[in-house]
Amino acid sequence: MNRALDPLAAQLLLRAYARATNMLIAGRSFATDDPTLAALLRSFGAHVRPLSGVEGTPASSPVAFALEEDAAPRPGAITVLAPQGVFRAVVAPDGRTITGPGDEGRIEWARTHMPVTEAAARSLAPLVAGRSVGLSLVLEPKTAALALMLAEAGARVSVFGWASETREDVAARLRDAGIPVFADSSASREREWQLARDFLAQRSEFLLDDGSHLIRLAHDTQRCPGVLDALVGAAEETTSGLRPLRSFDLRIPVLASNDARAKTLFDNAYGTGQSCWTTILDLIDPRGVGAPVAGMSVVVIGYGDVGRGCARFGAALGARVTVVEVDPVRALQASMDGFTVASLEEATPGAGMLISATGERATIPLSALEAAPAGAIVTVAGGVDGEVSIDEAVADSWVMAESGDPHVQPLTSPSGKTLRVLERGEGINYTAGEGNPIEIMDMSFGVQLASLRELLTRGSELTPGVHDLPREADDAVAAAALPARPGSSAPLAPTCGRARPPHSYTVS
C-alpha cells in the first residue's frame, strides 16, 4: 500500500481492533507501515514498529495492521486484516477470527490475557478454599473469568449484576458452570433490588463491589437481615463507590481497592479513557464511515484520572478539548497538560460534545442542557446515576424519546432544540460497550484479589471502616503486570531501600 490512510480510515481500524479484542492500546506493541495509523496509535500511547518487525511472545502478542492487497495473518500476532485500508477481519495468533462481544469464546479470550488475576487467584487457593465470595461487578466476560478462577481455587462464588451492566450470554455461561447468578438484563428497578437482596441473602463472607451499592445495602438490617453477621469484609473498586463509604457508618472493614496505584492510575485514566472514546465513536457512527470528531469542541467535565484519560484520548482523535474543573489544582494540571480550562457556563454554548467524568450527580445540570447547541452529544464516562440532570429536564417539559437506536436518545427542549444523549446518561463504556480493556481489568482484579487476601488473612484485625491496601501488595500487582509490557522482561526490583515485598503478596 503506497498511499497513506486518511485520518477517518485510521480511526476506523483502531476502533475495529478495540471492538473485536477489547484489548488495550496504550503500552501494547503494534506494527504498521502506514504513517497516519502509526501517528494515531502513538497518540494513544502505543509502541509502534514497522510491519517487518513483528515478533510475538507468549506474554504479549503484538498487533499487526496488514494493509497490503494480499493481506494475510501474521504468525504470532493479532492481525487486523484491512487490504488497502478497508477492514475485513481481526485474526488471533491461533488463526481464529475474533468478532467481538457475543463471541462464544469471549470468556476464554479474556482469560488468556489475564495473567495477573490468574496467578493471584491460584495463589489464594489455600486461603479461599471453602470460603464464600460474592462478586457485585459489571457482568461481562472479564468478570466471568474472575468468577471461574475463584471457583477453581475452591471458593464458593456467587455473582450479582445490575440490569444495564449484565450480558445475558455471560450470565448463562456462569450458571452452566454451577455459579449462582443474580442478574437479569431486562429487570425493572424493583426487580433489580430484589435480586440484590437475594444475592446478599447467600450470606457471603467476602464481597467485591463496584459502586458500593451492595456494601451499603448489606447494612440495611431490615431489608437484609443477618447479612452482616456473616460478612467479614468487602473491597470497593470505584471512586464513586468509596466516596459515600467514607461518611457511612460501616460495621465491617472495606479495602479501598480503587485507591491502589495499580488500579486508579491505569484503570481510570487509560482503560476508561480508551473504552469510553471507542464506544462513543461506535455509537455516533453506527454505519462505520468514520466519526468526524477532529476539530469538534469537546467539553470534559472533571479532571480526575477518568477526566484526564477522556481529555487525552479526545485530543488524540483531533478534538478541541476544553476542561471544566472546580478544583484549582486539577484545573492548573489540565492547563499544563495543554488543555483549555473554562467554566461550564463559558464552555457549553460552543460544545459539540459534553462528557461528564466526575462520578457526582448533576455534573451536567439543566442549565448546561439549556445552553448546549442543538445536536450536541451528551454522555457520561464511568459515573453514577444522575450525572446528567435528565429527570430535572423532563420535569421542566423536555422530552426524552426513543430513536430506533437503543443507545442514543434524543432529548428535546420545549423550544424544539434536540440533544443526543448516549445510553440515557449512564456510564457509556460498561452499558453500551464491553467495559475497560482486558489488560486493565486484569490489573484491577489483581488489586481486588490482593484486597481479598488482606481480608482473608487480617480481616479479624481490621476495624470497621475504609482501609488502604498495603503499599507492598499494590506494588506486587504492578510488578506482576510489568513483564507483559513491550521492552520489559521481569518485574522491577524494589527501590528506595525498601525490602522486597513479603512472600504472601507474590501474585506470580
How would you characterize this protein structure?
With 508 residues, this protein is an alpha/beta fold. The chain has three domains: 7-100; 108-262 and 435-505, 3-Layer(aba) Sandwich (Rossmann fold), CATH 3.40.50; 272-431, Rossmann fold (3-Layer(aba) Sandwich). Helix content is 38%, strand content 15%. The protein has helices spanning 7-21, 35-43, 106-112, 115-128, 141-152, 168-176, 189-200, 213-218, 227-230, 239-245, 261-284, 305-316, 328-336, 344-347, 366-371, 390-395, 428-431, 438-458, 471-481, and strands spanning 29-31, 47-49, 63-66, 78-81, 89-91, 97-98, 132-136, 156-160, 181-182, 206-209, 233-236, 253-256, 297-301, 320-324, 340-341, 353-356, 377-380, 399-400, 408-412, 418-422, 465-467. The strands form three sheets. It has an eight-stranded mixed sheet. The chain has a seven-stranded parallel sheet with strand order 9-8-7-10-11-12-21. Strand 7, helix 5 (141-152) and strand 8 (156-160) form a beta-alpha-beta unit. The longest helix has 24 residues, at 261-284. The radius of gyration is 23 Å and the shape is globular.
